[in-house]
Amino acid sequence: MSLPALAALACPNCAAGLSQTERRLHCPAGHSFDLARQGYAPLLAPGANTTTGDTAEQVAAREAFLSTGVFDALTDAVARASRTDAPGVVVEPGCGTGHYLAAALDADESRAGIGLDTSKYALRRACRRPLRRAAGTHEGRLAAVLADAWARLPVQDGAAAAVLNVFAPRNAEEIARILHPRGSLVVLTPGQDHLRELVDALSLLSVDPAKPRRTTDQLAAAFAAERTDELRYPIELGREDALNLVSMGPSARHRSPEELAAAVDRLPLPIRATVSATVATWRRRA
Question: Is residue 286 part of a domain?
Answer without folding.
Answer: no
